[in-house]
Amino acid sequence: xxxxxxxxxxxxxxxxxxxVLAIFALLILLTDLLLPQAGxxxxxxxxxxxxxxxxxxSLVGLAGALAAxxxxxxxxxxxxxxxxxxxxxxxxxxxxxxxxxxxxxGILLSPAYLKxxxxxxxxxxxxxxxxGTVGMMIMVAATSFLTIFLGLEMLSLALYILCGFVMxxxxxxxxxxxxxxxxxFASAILLYGIAxxxxxxxxxxxxxxxxxxxxxxxxxHLLPGAHVPAPTLLLIGMGLLMVGFAFxxxxxxxxxxxxxxxxxxxxxxxxxxSVGTKAAALIAFARVxxxxxxxxxxxxxxxxxxxxxxxxxxxxxxxxxQSNVKRLLAYSSIAHAGYLLIGVVAGGTVGxxxxxxxxxxxxxxxxxxFGIVSVLERADNSGSNLSDLRGLWYRQPLLAGLLAFFMxxxxxxxxxxxxxxxxxxxxxxxxxxxxxxxIIGVLASVLGMYYxxxxxxxxxxxxxxxxxxxGVATSVPTRPAPVSxxxxxxxxxxxxxxxxxxxxxxxxxxxxxxxxxxxAEKALERPVVIKGWTTWxxxxxxxxxxxxxxxxxxxxxxxxxxxxxxxxxxxx
Amino acid sequence: MGxxxxxxxxxxxxxxxxxLYGALAKRNAIAVLMGIEIMLNAxxxxxxxxSFFNKxxxxxxxxxxxxxxxxIITVAAAEAxxxxxxxxxxxxxxxxxxxGEINMMKW
Amino acid sequence: xxxxxxxxTFLPLIGGIVxxxxxxxxxxxxxxxxxxxxxxxxxxxxxxxLGYSQAVPGFNATIVGAGxxxxxxxxxxxxxxxxxxxxxxxxxxxDVDGISLLLVALTSxxxxxxxxxxxxVEQKVKNYMAFMLLLESGILGVFLSSNLFLFYIFWELMLxxxxxxxxxxGGEHRIYAAIKFVxxxxxxxxxxxxxIIALGYYHQKLAGGAYTLDIPTLLxxxxxxxxxMWLFLAFAAAFAVKVPLIPFHSWLxxxxxxxxxxxxxxxAGAxSKTGAYGFLRFCIPLFPDAARTLAPLIxxxxxxxxxxxxxxxxxQVDMKRLLAYSSISHLGIIMLGIFAFNAQGIEGxxxxxxxxxxxxxxxxxxxxxxxxxxxxxxxxxxxxxxxxVPVLATVMFIAALSSLxxxxxxxxxxxxxxxxxxxxxxxxxxxxxxxxxxPAAWYMMRFFQGVMQxxxxxxxxxxALERKNILSDIQLGEFLCVLPLLFLIFYIGFQPQPLIFLMxxxxxxxxxxxxxxxxx
Lengths: 572, 107, 520
Description:
By secondary structure, chain A is mainly α. Chain A has 24 helices and no strands. The two termini of chain A are 25 Å apart.
């Protein structure tokens, strides 16, 4: 038996977007070495710390990848590359657009955040962001379980580190740890599922598997079209795959890690991964189940249906109890994963294009919302509690207005993108004969209304606590911004003795070791302002995207998605 | 009688269950990590077994399982490196690697 | 063709955006700009109404000839293809006919009045005015859109500013009231969304072709009765909450009493009409069989609401809550007329929508005036105010009489027509509906006499003000706000014919369509 492997030049062209990004990731690491550093890294905030070069470089890389994707979309041959390992069909490219958008917006949000939190390991940060993006792109492009695994691990490894990037923050370390343990656990389960599927079908490439599934009647010398029960091995494999994917898309009952990880991670990273990981995992999920395993959909459909309903209902219910916007958004992302899973249940061109469109819209909404959170967030991960937001409108009308805007669009108010996305995915549910999902989804959205609007109520309708009311009449409290050098926080109690003396408010964090630094942060806390042109750009893009995707662009994008999915299902 | 596919599968399943138990029941982060590594190795055994005794001849790609196993080994090494770095950093700050105690965030 | 209807709909929205960009400190400029935009919109609407009234007879002839399917005819029709593929065909289309024209005129008039009455608002004036204009835009869009997708967008668009207006500028329990209001309405409207998605889908399945939500196209399809029933219920959920019908009404007293007076006027005067309009314009023509089957149910709910809320109004101690319950009671009469399915009933209902909008607006404004003077709304705090504030008392007396349906004032003609229609279709509902006259007169007189007449209070906040002699009568600006409403109360009372002239062709067409669309 011969085993041929041919890698032509065209194959490299088909993965050009990933290549460009990977090259830029390496370039960033190199450039980081050459940039001047004032003081030792991580110890002191130098004035010479450069917060512009690297983000710009990564944005250039993303633009290059985007350009490559667009070229492939228009002029590519859509064929899978490297022996059916990785696809370059329009569905994949559409998913690239989503992931690149999420990544670009996440990177735009980063410089101001890194600067504010005094995080100086920028080279690693941006390189890991780009490599995580590459991982996500490989995962959505995968047409073989091997590639799915590689993409998955690539994105996970990058995100483990990014989640724990704020080393001095306990929640950040914890987030990274939890993410690692649960995610690699899920990966192992997924892998076992892959192994069993491989055993049952004799192949790890999707083409091979679907070939097996379509022709297994012939293999068993049965009449064509006869109902052949799927082999038990395959059923077990599918079950394990489902558990693994459900972990990755944070579907109930495997959602427990999501809030903790999202809460602890730095806000721009949360923003990026809440959309990027979800897109990657969901599209891979959809590709494996709704396309490859479509012939045996009777076997897996009830389980996915149950997961979908549970995710929608439980995600929304759990979000009701949250009092922190960041955690609330994490739970809401679980609920949105539920809505997205409707697309998997619906299947077919409509279902899959609904997933793609929803994710595209969701990228703008969610990054916008997390973008505001990243502006609000302080170094000790406080600042996004509902109590902190109380009366924000009177202090920061613009910030409050933007957050309200994103909350409303996440809640699905027209004419924003969230509405168009929901409309189309509910339509997909109905068209595939699942009116019950339409009704469940709609009723669960009422719960969604409640918690999104509660955030707005806190910002717009509750007046500030008495201690703060001095600043209400004039717009912004005019406390002088502290000198950046004094914000140094190495985690050693001694350095902050002067600062702790000022603070009278007892810290809420339970850890005595961190107490002093938390207090120091609170004492030196300054009014929340949107800083840096990149942040402005990110927020502007998300607002424009949210509005346009809901109105002018909605149908164009839906059509594009329908076309893309059509070709994707044909090429596979 | 020689080795059959079932031997591989049973070994793989046993290893997987041991790893699963370790990952779920152990409190020490290092032990959890080891559990996960055992699970990954269970997958390797299964993969290699399937690759060697592939039943579905016409569609088998003979080496896939073994190649896959090599990939898994590589990735597992990378994962272990990252995880150990993370555990060390937590240990430095907290002097503990008990996963039960790393629970600042709840609900 | 000039997009007149879009101009009417979006002019307030543009005004709102313009207001947002004005400097925060220039409060006077902000107020007058907002008022200017509202006035401009009102003038355009009046021009449209004038043109429409000239065109009606001619169109009437062609419509009768065109047959029942042309129920959705229009003088000014706008349609822009939003997207057209073989799968989806969604248009941006707007239409106006006699019914919607009247409600549009009412809405734009009330906006002018409310913005005028809101000159007292000191806090966050800019956002307040912007939200007010946005609210107008939403309500106008609901009345004018003839595509369900567009309709839904406006339907939700009107919710957002209302939420902010109630929640940010309201009274003590404003947050509770605002969230309750939004949850009730959005639960209903999300069910309607499910209904809209499903309606398009079933229509596509029935008629083939593209997925479309254009009302004229949808009106041609005859869905089978089970589907109709479910869809009717889904749509009715949204409308019944907005009207509100009886089991879905509990948000209303809270929202009306917590909102600042001008906002209450908008909610009660204009927004509550969208529910009744939805029943008339969407539920009945789209699902005629279901409407006929469920008419007894809806009528029962309406009658229960009429009597129950009239009784509740009697028991209220808060003036605003009293008016809120009376408002539910009056809207029940409108619903009863719509579901009588005859010309008198529907014409009376539409007329009553306008009348109720005018009357309840006047009453809420007056309560607002009283509240700003005394700082209280408790009926028991008041007594014998008429001596101090004679003009205000007179205005309030006229509005109260109008509300209880005195012949010669506006509400009489509408209620009379409705009851005439209801008696034709069902004597029981007719009798029960008529019975409300007794409690209505009772609570309105209790309201008026309790405040303006009777013995003066010797203690309490109002008495304290009287002792200090700082209780002033109605001011010129305040009076100018109520003046158009008073004029309409008298004008419609003496001369209801123009209203009927405007709406008659539309009503006749609706009925014709209804008769022909029933599956026999």
